[in-house]
C-alpha cells in the first residue's frame, strides 16, 4: 500500500495500510507476551525429603543428580487425587523431586515441570502452558488474520488497477509475492489456529490429545463450550511461582553434582578432579570388564600365590649358586 499510497483513493489506501499496521503490531505484541512470559514453571524441591515415613534416610536434589536415578526411593511413583469427582493419577518427578499437579508435565527441552503443559513450541522458543496459553492463542489467531488480510487486499490491489490481470501482475510484483507467501503461510498458522480452538472448546491440551488421554475415558475438565472458552480467555492468570529477582545462593555441591551427571547424559564430559570439561578425544575410555569388577574380585589368593612363586624362584636360584 505504500507503493500505491499516492494513486487512486487515498482514504482507501490509508485505511488498508493502517489496519495492516495495527494487525502487525498486535501479532508482535502477542508473540512477545508468549515467548517472554513464565509459562508456569514449578520450582524444584530443593529440600531433603524422607524416603519412607518414619525413616531417617532422606533424598536431596544433589543426590538425585549424581545418581541419575532413584533405585532406593521409597516414595510411590504415583498417587491418586480427586478432580471434579474423578480420580486422577499424578506422577512423581524424579528430576524435580515433587508430585506433579494434575495436567502438569516435565518438559524435556526446558528440563522443568510446567503447569497445564500444552507443548513446547520451537518457533516461539518457549513452553506453552497455563500462564501464556491465552497469549499463544491470540498470537496464532492474529497471524492467521494478518495472512488472510494481506492475501485479500493484495488481490484487491491487483483487480482495482486498469487493464488485463496478467499484465497487471507482471507490473505489480510485490502483490504477487505477497499473495503466494500468505497463501502458503495461512495453511500452517490457520490449521494450527483451528486445532487449538478445537482443543480449547473441549478443554484439552496438545499433550493430552496426542496421547489419547480421553479417547476411552471421560475428560474431567470438560465443562461445556462457553465455560471452556471462558476458562482460557477470562480466567485469572495465576502469579508466577518463580522469584526471578531473588538472590541465588552459592551451591557448589549442586553445581558439581549437576556437571557430574552431565557426563552420562550429554556428549560434553566433566573432569571432577581437574575441574574442567573434557573433549571427546580426552574422554575416559571404558575399562575392561575384569577391571570394572575389581570390587567383586578377591585378590588375596592370587597375591599369596604370587608371593609363594617368587619365594620358590629365589630358593632355586640360591641352590644353583651354591
From TrEMBL:
GO molecular function: protein-cysteine S-palmitoyltransferase activity
Keyword Nuclease annotated: no
An annotated GO BP: protein targeting to membrane
Membrane topology term: Multi-pass membrane protein
TM ranges: 12-34, 135-156, 176-199
Keyword entries, A-Z: Acyltransferase, Membrane, Transferase, Transmembrane, Transmembrane helix
GO cellular component, one term: endoplasmic reticulum
The reaction(s) this protein catalyses: L-cysteinyl-[protein] + hexadecanoyl-CoA = S-hexadecanoyl-L-cysteinyl-[protein] + CoA
UniProt entry tagged with the keyword Transferase: yes
Pfam families: DHHC (PF01529)
Entry-linked PROSITE patterns: DHHC
UniProt free text on domains: The DHHC domain is required for palmitoyltransferase activity.
Protein name, as recorded: S-acyltransferase
Gene that encodes it: LOC108846651
Amino acid at each position: 500500500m505504500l507503493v500505491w499510497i499516492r494513486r487512486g483513493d487515498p482514504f482507501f489506501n490509508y485505511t488498508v495500510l493502517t489496519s495492516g499496521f495495527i494487525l502487525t503490531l498486535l501479532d508482535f505484541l502477542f508473540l512477545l507476551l508468549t515467548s517472554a512470559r513464565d509459562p508456569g514453571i514449578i520450582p524444584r524441591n530443593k529440600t531433603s525429603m524422607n524416603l519412607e515415613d518414619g525413616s531417617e534416610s532422606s533424598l536431596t536434589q544433589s543426590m538425585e543428580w549424581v545418581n541419575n536415578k532413584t533405585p532406593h526411593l521409597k516414595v510411590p511413583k504415583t498417587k491418586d487425587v480427586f478432580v471434579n469427582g474423578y480420580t486422577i493419577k499424578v506422577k512423581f518427578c524424579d528430576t524435580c523431586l515433587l508430585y506433579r499437579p494434575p495436567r502438569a508435565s516435565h518438559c524435556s527441552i526446558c528440563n522443568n515441570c510446567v503447569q497445564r503443559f500444552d507443548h513446547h513450541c520451537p518457533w516461539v522458543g518457549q513452553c506453552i502452558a497455563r500462564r501464556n496459553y491465552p497469549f499463544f492463542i491470540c498470537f496464532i489467531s492474529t497471524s492467521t488474520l494478518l495472512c488472510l488480510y494481506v492475501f485479500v487486499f493484495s488481490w484487491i490491489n491487483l483487480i482495482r488497477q486498469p487493464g488485463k490481470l496478467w499484465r497487471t501482475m507482471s507490473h505489480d510484483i510485490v502483490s504477487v509475492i505477497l499473495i503466494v507467501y500468505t497463501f502458503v503461510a495461512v495453511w500452517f498458522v490457520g490449521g494450527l489456529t483451528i486445532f487449538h480452538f478445537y482443543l480449547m472448546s473441549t478443554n484439552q491440551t496438545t499433550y493430552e490429545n496426542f496421547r489419547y488421554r480421553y479417547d476411552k475415558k471421560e475428560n474431567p475438565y470438560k465443562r461445556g463450550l462457553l465455560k471452556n472458552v471462558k476458562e482460557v480467555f477470562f480466567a485469572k492468570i495465576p502469579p508466577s511461582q518463580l522469584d526471578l529477582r531473588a538472590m541465588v545462593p552459592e551451591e557448589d555441591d549442586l553445581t558439581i553434582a549437576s556437571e557430574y551427571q552431565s557426563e552420562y547424559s550429554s556428549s560434553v564430559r566433566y573432569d571432577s578432579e581437574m575441574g574442567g570439561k573434557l573433549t571427546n578425544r580426552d574422554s575416559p575410555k571404558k575399562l575392561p570388564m575384569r577391571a570394572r569388577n575389581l570390587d567383586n574380585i578377591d585378590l588375596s589368593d592370587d597375591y599369596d600365590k604370587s608371593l609363594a612363586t617368587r619365594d620358590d624362584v629365589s630358593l632355586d636360584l640360591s641352590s644353583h649358586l651354591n
